[in-house]
């Protein structure tokens, strides 16, 4: 079953799906392991595993700091691949890798994607790789049956959205606002118009992220998108209250 089919099947039983984000190795792989178990038990349908990178340009201060601390603690790509293999074997939901292109370039694009497939990852989000510069990446994704998830932004023209959608698979990640992750998003008429443009541009499911942090945000997305993406809010929660707080938080989002 393709990632798109799996999302649509899960969506049949839910008004909206939840996708969460964590930085691998922050604050530790042991904490990652507990957080993921709690997320899955609370009903999260998709989990995005970020491989730490030194210059995560799409990320706000919370995730940027988590990336840097993980790197400072010695987290390496090999460990992230091993951890992903453990998680996909234990939990029967889709896992994605999110990282930046230099990670793939240094590892070797073909080798990295072959390993991603081997460890059971279903797709990738690479924010700094436009399709015009990603021919090798896109070809390797097709070869290894991985979804190269594309990103729409409020600044994307209709033409640009159509082009991105033509290279994408799995779902489209719709950035809710200009800027980086972590800040609050306003769900106003401008946002509704933007999501309507996203919907016209593709038949793939839509995931909305950047600034989604509570039940009210998730409620606002019902009927507009298939997936709500929770990122910085979860990282802050674990920092302030520990992994045990994840269960109640996730269960309270829908």
Automatic annotation (TrEMBL):
GO cellular component: cytosol
Domain of life the protein comes from: Bacteria
SUPFAM superfamilies hit by this protein: Ribulose-phoshate binding barrel (SSF51366)
One GO MF term attached to the UniProt entry: tryptophan synthase activity
Listed Gene3D superfamilies: Aldolase class I
Key words of the record: Amino-acid biosynthesis, Aromatic amino acid biosynthesis, Lyase, Tryptophan biosynthesis
Pathway: Amino-acid biosynthesis; L-tryptophan biosynthesis; L-tryptophan from chorismate: step 5/5
Enzyme Commission number: 4.2.1.20
Keyword Amino-acid biosynthesis listed: yes
Main enzyme class: lyase
Function: The alpha subunit is responsible for the aldol cleavage of indoleglycerol phosphate to indole and glyceraldehyde 3-phosphate.
Assembly: Tetramer of two alpha and two beta chains.
Database matches in HAMAP family: Trp_synth_alpha
Protein name listed in UniProt: Tryptophan synthase alpha chain
Species, as recorded: Desulfurivibrio alkaliphilus (strain DSM 19089 / UNIQEM U267 / AHT2)
Name of the encoding gene: trpA
